[in-house]
Hints:
Layout: E1 5-11, H1 16-27, E2 33-40, H2 46-53, E3 58-60, H3 68-81, E4 86-89, H4 98-103, E5 108-112, H5 124-130, E6 135-142, E7 152-159, H6 166-215
Parallel strand pairs: 1-2, 1-4, 2-3, 4-5
Antiparallel strand pairs: 5-6, 6-7
Helix pairs in contact: 1-6, 5-6
Bound molecules: 5-O-phosphono-beta-D-ribofuranosylamine.
Amino acid sequence: xxxxxxxxxxxxxxxxxxxxxxxxxxxxxxxxxxxxxxxxxxxxxxxxxxxxxxxxxxxxxxxxxxxxxxxxxxxxxxxxxxxxxxxxxxxxxxxxxxxxxxxxxxxxxxxxxxxxxxxxxxxxxxxxxxxxxxxxxxxxxxxxxxxxxxxxxxxxxxxxxxxxxxxxxxxxxxxxxxxxxxxxxxxxxxxxxxxxxxxxxxxxxxxxxxxxxxxx
Length: 216
Ligand code: GRF
């Protein structure tokens, strides 16, 4: 069986999505990913405490006093050190530098609490209510240089009720986030392994062609 895709979750706060990713994997070890690291720019983040309890390696470093590039280089180094293949942002409240996003392009996922492309950025639930939307929701997407604008991998909708305020809507959307993110990450990890398998069988058949040519 193919090795599990090594995933780092990058957080700044409570870490409930990180916990959901971990629980999904714990319930069925046959999933295609494993959490090898939880990293944070906030050393006192609640999610780091949870990760330690779960026995997942953690890393944290404050970003204050560093340029964005310096900080992202430190983050990148720890990801490389842990042979991370996919990075799952989950409540990481900091913009990433362009070089980091480009380096991890196609391997950097995020969950956003809106139905993208609606309501990019912060304060999404209040804006969905103000806009009179029928639905709120969440999106798992690939991260690209432009904020919350990368290709959407999966979405879940939540009906907005007449009595909703931003808090009640956020709570129902969060439940959907916890369902959606693990499935989307697992699917993406599987697709990654499948694409690697295809590439290696392609290069094997190229190699055989070369050998055949040489023997003639
Ligand atoms: C979630 O609502 C997520 O969509 C957003 O930040 C929040 C993080 O929550 N990007 P948690 O730290 O996973 O509990």
